[in-house]
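To make this tangible, this section ends with a sequence with its structure tokens:
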Amino acid sequence: MKRDMELIRKILLTIEETDDYPIYNLDIEGYRPSVVEYHCSILFDAGLVYDYINICGLGDDDECEFGISRLTWEGHEFLETAKDDSRWKKAMEVVKEKGGNITLDILKQLLIQLMKTTFLG
């Protein structure tokens, strides 16, 4: 499965807006539960979320249950760079222009650079 940076951003925004943790069976419109679950698991792997619980069946979306906890400090830091819609769109335009693939670390650096331009000129 390919990593989807748009979905990652949506998941992080949803977690940030939630006051009740953990979040079970996170539903993101337009995405299958197994795709959301996979992205939640790799957010945990990347250290952007504190906890991840998987109680999924074997590839059956109807049996998929998972939980995800709060953002980590690093998750909040990344989301601060990615939260602004216009900055995010500009970063995604640059990614598309340069070939369409980017690592999370490079994306964060790009977003930080765009943020610096906004705040520091």
Remarks:
- Helices lie at 5-17, 33-45, 73-82, 85-97, 104-120.
- The chain has a mean pLDDT of 90.
